[in-house]
Amino acid sequence: QVQLVESGGGLVQAGSSLSLSCAASGGSYDMGWFRQAPGKEREFVAAISRTGSFTNYPDSVKGRFTVSRDNAKNTMYLQMNNLKPEDTAVYYCAADPDGDYFTTGAWAYWGQGTQVTVSS
User: Fold this and answer.
1) Does pLDDT of 99 surpass 90?
2) b/e code 101-119 from CB counts within 10 Å (16+ = b)
3) Alpha carbon distance 71, 9 (integer Å)
């Protein structure tokens, strides 16, 4: 049974930084981050391969967000810099994609989410 637990969300001002963590148990997989703002669909934020050698981001966060992982700790991280009000959302980690990892349907496992709020 795979379990994913996010932490690190909070309320910050625009231009600040925040780091999220996702602790995983039950296996080692390719992993990713998604986010969902109120009234919007869940969207892809970042992906990282099992070894950490491959990462990918959408243009909306490229250059500001960095995904990494520590396999010894079974933990994935999302470092978010220069946060903007439009980054406000619930952030979810996901694991074990099969297919197009940009889409929510490709991922087998999800965490419960952590709220990130960026004030202007």
Assistant:
1) no
2) beebebbebbbebbebebe
3) 22
